[in-house]
Design goal:
Elements: H1 6-19, H2 21-25, H3 28-33, H4 36-46, H5 54-66, E1 75-82, H6 83-86, E2 91-95, E3 104-118, E4 123-128, E5 141-142, H7 143-146, E6 150-157, E7 173-178, E8 182-194
Antiparallel strand pairs: 1-8, 2-7, 3-6, 3-8, 4-5, 4-7
Length: about 200
């Protein structure tokens, strides 16, 4: 990885402070694979630092990726469902921030931190809004399958035949609750994706 100039180091420090280290750390694979200075330069040219968001950084990365022959880096998008925050009525609940436009999900998994519970046999499905509403967990399943504590593998497993549909603008990870409302629970969902260069 190329050394950063003093100005680029300052920009990265401010960006880390603004977005949070965890969000910037998610960009490390791209920083390692590409020239971080170019990425930050594109960001600085296109977006005032005070308005910088994770999406701006991803746009800068994708601008660089599409200008190279190296291909797109694999990124990770994370969303959290927390009954205490999001509620648990029978519905589809969008979680966190939107994935970048054109993201192709290649692998997915989720970690149930607090087991999901219900008073009436609820089912849940995890997916991406509109494009693939059950694309993470598969068809809606009882909490004993999808809502138990620990890690669960998603439908996308890295095999190209199981890649998800490319996302449209503004689409988020969602949890679809059916049959009965949830009464408790918390989980985190991860989607690995890339954005094709064409």
């Amino acid at each position: 990885m190329a050394l950063l100039t003093a100005a680029q180091k300052t920009l990265l420090a401010k960006l880390t402070q603004k977005l949070g280290k965890d969000k910037v750390d998610h960009l490390d694979p791209a920083f390692q694979q590409y020239n971080m200075g170019q990425i930050l330069g594109i960001l600085a040219d296109s977006t005032p630092l005070g308005e910088a968001t994770a999406a701006n950084v991803l746009t800068a990365i994708n601008t660089l990726v599409k200008a190279t022959d190296a291909g797109a880096p694999v990124m990770v998008h994370k969303a959290i469902y927390n009954h205490a925050v999001d509620g648990g009525l029978v519905s589809s609940i969008a979680l966190g921030t939107a994935l970048p436009t054109g993201a192709v999900p290649i692998r997915s998994y989720w970690n149930v931190i607090t087991p999901l519970t219900s008073g009436g046999g609820a089912k849940i499905a995890l997916g991406i809004e509109t494009s693939n509403t059950a694309g993470i967990s598969g068809a809606a399943a009882v909490l004993g399958t999808n809502g138990t504590a620990g890690w669960h593998d998603g439908e996308s497993d890295g095999a190209s035949t199981n890649f998800g549909s490319a996302t449209a603008a503004g689409q988020k990870i969602e949890i679809a609750i059916s049959v009965a409302a949830l009464t408790a629970g918390k989980l985190e969902v991860f989607v690995e994706y890339f954005i094709p260069a064409t």
